[in-house]
Write a structure and sequence with these properties.
This protein is mostly helical. It has 32 helices and no strands. It binds one DNA strand through helix 7, helix 9, helix 11, helix 13 and helix 15. This is Pentatricopeptide repeat-containing protein At1g64310.
Length: 549
Amino acid sequence: MCFGLAFLVYELSQSHNTLSIVKQLHALTIKYHLSFDPFYATKIIRLYALNNDLHSARIVFDRIPCRSVYLWNSIIRAYARAHQFNHALCLFSQMLRTEIEPDNFTFASVIRACSDYLDEVDLRVVHGRVIIAGLGSDSISSSALVRAYSRVRFVDEARRVFNGMPKPDLVMWNSMVSGYGSSGCWDKGLELFRRMQKMGERPDGYTMVGLLSGLWEPSLLQVGKGIHGLCLKNGFESYAHVGSALVTMYSRCGCLSSAYGAFNSQSLPDLVQWSALITGLIQSGACEEALLLFREMNLKGQKADAISIASTLAACARLAMMGPGREIHCYVIRHGFELEVMVSSALVAMYSKSGFAGLGFRVFKAMSKRNTIAYNSVISGLGSNGLASFAFDMFNEMLEEGFQPDQSTFSALLGTCCHAGFVKDGWDLLRRMEKEFNIEPSTEHYVYMVKLLGMAGEFEKAYQLIHSIPGYTDSGVWGALLSCCEVHGNSELGEVVAHRLFEIAPDKSAYRVMLSNIYASNGRWNDVKSLRDDMMEGGLRKMPGLSWT
DNA sequence: ATAGGGTTAG
């Protein structure tokens, strides 16, 4: 056996090859007439996929006439991993038309594609096929099903699959626990966790991450601390994934000191842990601190990636700080991150929020790949800087390019109308989003619409609109109307709305201030006084904006 | 076959 073949056989068993080595290996399989052998082809496809060269992987696949299950699985898994779900599913349906039967690994990949790309209905179809194939109690395809049903918010269906397993293995338990976690049922996750322990199944790091992922708010801090304790007791806190789940959990629960603590207890924090902490700081409003931390990360030699850059740019945007934003932009250009849609969308927002919509627009124009979020970003950037017609142009372009607008698109567009005072366009959009795009307007869309009408002085219409909203008790829309009354000094309607708000949200002193401003602008000083006395009784001692009376 | 950080709108 010559050197080349020995090299080939050895390297094929390694998974940490670079793309150039994979290409050499591929060439060797051709040289030794092994390129049509399904075994070698499967390996080559897997290696191309691991190195993100799906194109080459596909070429190899297409050239093999005699395809084994393994070969099909490797190409389907490659597409599913790369989030190219349409390709994955397309290949799956091709496979169903051959005499090769899909196995549990095929189903696992396809189910993964369904949960990220398709909906519950498609998932049920695939589920049916799993059962027909006799894999109903196979743990590999069933745990994929549990995960997928949880991701599309059908936890109960996930539980049914779980219950159908005579003896769930650890992966199965973990999938169900994290299914509960990601669906916001942390208490059910914990219950399942206890049952699992009672049945003698030992949890591992995955279990802990699943439990932690369900803790989203400050009231769950104690629960989180309890789970942290369990991690410490079992030595799981040294796992990188557990570490970053802890950092995230503490930030979400509003306990930044503990987030820092979890971060610092990692001997060598990795990129994900750094960005978990940075994001935690941004969400708690500590944006300057987040920027400093990003710099510290770079100084420590940890290279940033698209996700951490995009998050940090969001901090610059919130601070409306061009300085650091531009610096990061330079870094982005030097390292080629402007090709990442996520990064460029964040850049557009950063420039726009700093008041330089033109620069944002230029970044957008230079993007080679776009998506709905990128369009949302540029539309709101232009619109919120008073460039309404440009914003509408981009909306039309987005539709021509075939991108689906979403809730945020319409928020951005209605916000644009507010800035420009385009009442008619506002009505148009509100109608189109429901009729043409099947998106139900949410409270914030109505808030924009009410503001738009109220600012134009069309109080009647605004009031009617609020009454036409199903379940119109939300304080947001009334607050918007009240602030319009404040601007216009409309005390007749203002009084009605304010009293309504006092009923819905009695503790909101802001509404009392607004009402008092309305009284003041009408010279009704006695009403101003009595409102203030009311507030004093209610324990609200300070009344901002009225210290001069 | 299971796990961590995510850009837009608000």
